[in-house]
Amino acid sequence: MNLLSRHTDYAVRALLYMANRVGERVSSMDIHRDLKLPRPFMRKTLQVLQKEGYLVSVKGHKGGFMLAMPPQKIRLIGLMRIFQGDISLSDCLFRKKLCRCVAVCPLRREIKSMEAVLVDRLSGVSLADLMVR
Amino acid sequence: MNLLSRHTDYAVRALLYMANRVGERVSSMDIHRDLKLPRPFMRKTLQVLQKEGYLVSVKGHKGGFMLAMPPQKIRLIGLMRIFQGDISLSDCLFRKKLCRCVAVCPLRREIKSMEAVLVDRLSGVSLADLMVR
DNA sequence: TCTAATGATACCATTATTGTATCATTTGTA
DNA sequence: TACAAATGATACAATAATGGTATCATTAGA
Ligand code: FES
Ligand code: FES
Predict the structure, then answer these.
(1) Looking at A6-15, B69-78, B114-123, which range is the least confident one?
(2) Contact A122, A107 (CB under 8 A)
(3) Any ligand 1 atom below 6 A from CB of A94
């Protein structure tokens, strides 16, 4: 099971890269060169991060990106939500609900429990945590 | 996030249907008629269930399927494993690992914890549980 | 003014999932 | 015995999600 999409994956890597170069302007070219991520695709990732307020961008020659907030504030769950939508498991695991009334569903408590744990664990992870490796 | 594939979904529905008709032979046509599942596709689902030992099949005229075990023994996690493979979150959430050495990864404990909860919760759910709705 | 960068967007490719069709084989029944 | 109704096996097709490329306009430093 794949919890992260490429966009999320690349976002973390790119942000991590920039977190290690605070103060510098980092271009998509830099990241591409050093991290070997497919440039045009990852460029879109960065643009989204900029729109979402995670990055500050400077256009033009010698332009590039910089973190818009400290690594402690960037949390994995936030990035996942941006690129993969809400990680809710919804009311029912099935495509069309199985039980007459969701309120009586014997699976509901399990579903909510799983959901809570996932969100909780992922919320606990910040970019800063990943820097200390 | 979608935890169940169509095959798993259909498997549960079909098995549930049969669990309510113990002793009878249920054909794919019956299920199709009553549950409105796409027949050729769901037929494959049934064939897999047969191969995996969940169903006994009888070929020929008036043939069909029957549960090969009591509903208490059929667990959601088992069906998921068959149709969707292991639900392991693997060692690293990322496509290529982020950390020098997985052993030092700060995410590992979270990953394992999430995995354990998922498997645990899903293991707790049997077909019998879903019948009482 | 040239060049190297981002912004925006349209398009393409790949893969996974979902679904259909077909034919061989089996078996109850008229 | 022939027919019909079922599964077994398998190949094929459609769809959707994901991943990736290309292009052009705009911006700004040298
Ligand atoms: S409503 Fe979905 S399993 Fe009960
Ligand atoms: S090895 Fe994957 S995040 Fe650490």
Answers:
(1) B114-123
(2) no
(3) yes
Q: How many angstroms does the Cα of residue B95 sit away from the middle of ligand 1?
A: 32
What is the nearest nucleotide to B31, using C1' and CA? D6
Tokens of B82: 């068959």
Q: Which domain does A40 fall in, by range?
A: 6-130
Residue A32, classified by CB atoms within 10 Å of its CB into exposed (0-12), middle (13-18) or buried (19+), is middle
Residue whose CA lies closest to nucleotide C28 C1': B61
Question: Which residue is closest to B105 within chain A, CA to CA?
Answer: A133
Is residue B1 in a domain? no
Domain count, chain A: 1
Task: Give me the sign of the Cα torsion angle A48, A51, A54, A59.
Answer: positive
Which ligand minimizes its atom distance to the CA of B16?
Answer: 1
Q: Please indicate, yes or no, whether the overall pTM of this predicted structure exceeds 0.85.
A: yes
Q: What is the CATH number of the domain that holds A24?
A: 1.10.10.10
Distance B15 CA to D19 C1' (A): 36
Domain assignment of residue A27, yes or no: yes
Does residue B133 have a pLDDT over 60? no
Size of interface A-B (CB pairs under 8 A): 88
What tokens appear for B58 in the block?
Answer: 């009888």
Q: Is B102 in the pocket of ligand 2 (CB under 6 A)?
A: yes
On whether residue A111 sits in a domain, the answer given is yes
